Structures are given as structure tokens and as C-alpha cells.
Amino acid sequence: MDWLWELPECPSTNTWAKKNSAWLEHGQAVFTQQQTAGRGQWGRAWLAPAGVLTVSFVLDVPGVVRPGFTLGVGLGVIYAVEALCPIQPGVVGLKWPNDLYANNRKLGGILCETMPLNPGTRVIVGIGLNRAVDLTQAPQLSQAISLSEISQTVPGPYELLAKMRFYLLQAHSVMTNQGLTPLLPDLNRYHILQGQQILIQREQEIVKGRVTGINASGQLGLRLASGETITIAQGQITEWD
Ligand code: BTN
Which InterPro entries would you find in this protein's record (predicted)? Predict the structure, then answer.
């Protein structure tokens, strides 16, 4: 695979991709089987015991990154998993804005980080996916799930990486040319929070409402108890049904 850089060990593939960005090209990726200091959303640590797939893809976009880019990436990862695993469509779902879920437990997460290019923007698309993790040996991941629990066969890492790349490049091209709109039916179909009552922390306030859907700007629609519908661009969901 001439687009894949594999490191025996690496603190964080996202950090490595950023440091080596000068010579990395669009569509290339860095992968390790041993990520020792992974980073997640909100500055959290991302733990990766054996069997977690950790990779960062390099995707260049013209101009600025459209809102909702991470959601398109998430859909690409789901398509890759569904293409390779004998599971029913929808078993793996998205949780706005950057999580992959199955059976109401976290299967993976996405961390997109941007860097200026001239012209355009480079997105380092970091993906962590619990591929074949023995969660009994990882008590710190008690809320997680592994692909090996929901699929009778589990694809190897290279097979998954190649399929992910295919669907990520496809999502990238759709989003670059047409935005998020063509992806909205699937985004809302795969969204595990659709119609659910949630609590979301937005800056200093907690908002409670029922999820009405994801819009073309990647925002989350919420119907409040007052009947008013609002959209949220950024926030951390703390509880759901
Ligand atoms: C999250 O759920 O908070 C996002 C997790 C993203 C983890 C991946 S693993 C590969 C890449 N390198 C990192 O340091 N983080 C991302």
C-alpha cells in the first residue's frame, strides 16, 4: 500500500501526521498497532489497548473545512465496516458529532484537526476503532464495545484501512462538491440519537431537548420543552435515553 505509513509504535498518529505534514500527501495515512498517548475530543486521552485500530488520514480540502466534515468521515467508516462485516445495516451507528456506537456502547471515535495549506486546508482525520479488543482485559474501557463482539468475522487492519480510505475519499469528494446535503439521509438514518431526549452541555449551560435531526451544516436540531426548535453547532452530549 503505497499510501500507508506504518509505525511500530507512536504516541499519537494525529500528532505524527501534523509533524510530518510537509511531505505527506492527500490520501495518505499513518497507522500504528501501538499508540501510546492517543488524543481524543475535548483534550481527553484516547486509550488504545491491543486490537484498537488507530490511524490518521490526510485529506486536503479547497478553502475552509465545511461544518459537519467529521460526520461525513463517520459515515465513511460505517460504510467500510458494513462492507467487510456480516452485520445488519444500522448495527453500527453515529453519535453526533464524532462517535461511532453499537448497542449503545462506544465502538470508536474521530478526531479531525486542521492545518492551513496554501491554498486550502489540510485535515488530519484521526480514527480510533475498537476492532478486535478483549475488553475483559481493558477495564478502563468498560463503556466500550469491540467489533469482534458484534460481528462473527472481523476484518484485518489492512483490509479495514483500505476500505476506510475508499469511503473517506468518496465522502471527501461529495462534501467538497456538494456539501453535506447528499449525505443527510444516511446521516440521520445512522444517527443513534434521532428522536431521543438528550442533555447537552453548550459552553456553560446544559440544554435539554429532543433530537429532531442533523442539518446540512452538520448542526444538531433540538426541540425544547417550550416547543421551540434550536440548532446546536458544538456541544458535549452528557445524557441520552
Ligand atoms: C474521541 O472519541 O474522542 C476521538 C478519538 C480519536 C482517536 C484517534 S486514534 C488515531 C488518532 N490519533 C490520535 O491521537 N487520536 C486519533
Answer: aa-tRNA-synth_II/BPL/LPL, Biotin_CoA_COase_ligase, BPL_C, BPL_LPL_catalytic
* Domains assigned to the chain: 4-189 (3.30.930.10), 197-240 (2.30.30.100)
pLDDT tens digits, residue range 171-186? Answer: 999 999 999 999 999 9
Q: pTM for this one? A: 0.97
- Can you read off the three cell numbers belonging to residue 49? 489497548
Which 3 state secondary structure label does DSSP give 61? strand
Specify the amino acid at residue 52: V
Ligand 1 centroid to residue 48 C-alpha, Å: 9
Question: For residues 51 and 158, what is the distance between their CA atoms, to the nearest angstrom?
Answer: 13
The interface pTM score, or ipTM, of the predicted complex is 0.99
The pLDDT value recorded for residue 12 is 98
What ligand 1 atom has the least distance to the C-alpha of 48? 9
